[in-house]
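Usage

Read records sequentially. Each one opens with the input sequence:
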Amino acid sequence: MRIRVLGTAAGGGFPQWNCACPNCHDVRKGNKALRPLLQSSLAISANEKDWYLINAGPDVPKQIESFTSLHPGPGIRETPLAGVILTDAELDHTIGLLSLREGSCLTIYGTEIVKKCMQSSFPVLPMLKNYCSWEWQPLSPDFRQRVGPIGEEAIIVETVPVSRKPPLYTQANKEDNSPEDFWEVGLVLHNESSGRCLAYFPTLESISQAIEACLKKADILMVDGTFWSEDELVEMGATERSARSMGHLPISGQSGIAEKLALYPAERKILIHINNSNPILRMGSMERDTLERLGFEIAYDGMEVEV
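and closes with the structure output:
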């Protein structure tokens, strides 16, 4: 199973259009210690022919062009893009579906609450119906979903509840909100042939027993690296909200991501979904060097992993 990182950054990308933090300022100036990054997304395939996006954000056209395996052909409207797997209903992860409207058919995988939301609060599915056909395949913690053509190697997707925090735009539509619903999920992507797996958790507000079990068994971890510290944005004057209040465990500190991941035996531990303010984006920074000495990797656009 081949995994390609199409985008590494958290919402807004890097640099973020309305941000003048030191990282965004320096990357605009061409500082060689920093590189621009698209918004977080993966492409995965078990057979090198049928590819699936994990989340489709606003950068999806650029991301497809950046990766030759996703280029169309040989037919005039033939594409290797077979579907999109959604971890939540956030705009950063779903708005790119509208950019895929020219496709003849889309297969979209997601939880029932995400489907409901995309039929009402953010009615992507009704809008797509006027441009292309689409098929919805459910994701649920109650079963594993086989993703791929019948008779060929496939990806087995295990869905893991992460957060009950709904997208901000759903607040106006109370019918879409229930305190019992998990709005965000993580994914364990299993290679059907080898049995090896990658755990993908771009958002982690806490580590439940179910999440911990997945992190313990995975061969490769690709997890939330949004913020270095709890008060990263507060100290910059960008917001009054802490990392945890925004749904992300910080990397550093007691019970942070780095301390937690050190407990698990995975052969590779990769941080992704990195906010523009995070000092680990800067080559040679103390924070980045510390993580690399501990055996962590920092994802980058174009990174590839095989499982």
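Summary fields computed downstream for this record:
- Residues 115 and 248 are 24 Å apart (CA to CA).
- The chain has nine helices and 14 strands.
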